[in-house]
Design brief:
Strand content: 25-35%
Strand order of the largest sheet: 2-1-3-10-5-11-8
Shape: globular
Largest sheet: 7 strands, mixed
CATH topology: Spore Coat Polysaccharide Biosynthesis Protein SpsA, Chain A
CATH class: Alpha Beta
Number of helices: 6
Radius of gyration: 16 Å
Number of domains: 1
Distance between the termini: 29 Å
Order of helices and strands: EHEHEEHEEEEEEHHEEH
């Protein structure tokens, strides 16, 4: 299997994230082929679109999106890969970067999207939207989506603001796939509430 790890960069990647990527490759290289792709500009959505093109051009069967400020363990990647045998779109759990942690996974409401609650994390749960800090998508799903739209990641402003990760999730749903939140895969922001705990 060929796994592309795609990291969109604003300016730089955090040193702890680099360490996590190196550890991941060290663990996985004996089992699968892994390649890390980086794309740097101030426009994250366009970085993600370019990364998809690079990953598919390389022949990736799975694409793991990792934000440049995430911390995780190689076992987190293995768990997502295991779940991706049954689902084309899976995500780890991570939290916003404030003192009162809220999972960055969402359900649609009449006014937009609302965060799920901590009580919803008892078992794996299909959600309407996830942040793309640690999300794994199959080649098949990406190819299906590209038939519908050339730019998979794009911010929408009308009738309300929708970030590029949610636009991706809405498009994935048109191809019959919603993100599965894998609750035993908990990753963190470097400066976030769970950042240090994840690496223990």
């Amino acid at each position: 299997m060929r796994l592309a790890v795609c990291v969109p960069l604003g300016e730089s990647v955090n040193a702890l994230t680099v360490k996590c990527l190196i550890d991941e490759i060290e663990v996985l290289r004996h089992k699968i082929t892994v390649k890390v792709f980086l794309e740097c500009s101030c426009y994250v959505a366009e970085n993600r679109n370019k990364l998809v093109k690079k990953a598919l051009g390389w022949g990736a069967e799975k694409v793991l999106f990792v934000d440049a400020d995430m911390v995780f363990k190689a076992e987190n990647v293995l768990s997502l890969l295991e779940e991706s045998r049954k689902k084309d779109f899976v995500s780890g759990v991570y939290f916003n970067n404030v003192s009162d942690p809220v999972p960055l996974a969402f359900m649609k409401t009449v006014t937009g999207y609302d965060n799920i609650g901590l009580d919803d994390l008892k078992s794996n749960v299909e959600v309407d939207g996830v942040g793309f800090g640690f999300a794994l998508v199959s080649r098949e799903l990406l190819k299906c989506m590209l038939v519908l739209k050339r730019r998979l990641f794009q911010v929408k402003y009308e009738p309300r603001f929708v970030g590029e990760d949610f636009v991706f999730c809405e498009l994935a749903e048109k191809c019959g796939s919603k993100p599965l939140l894998v609750v035993n895969v908990v990753v963190g922001h470097v400066k976030g509430v769970l950042g240090k705990e994840v690496l223990k």
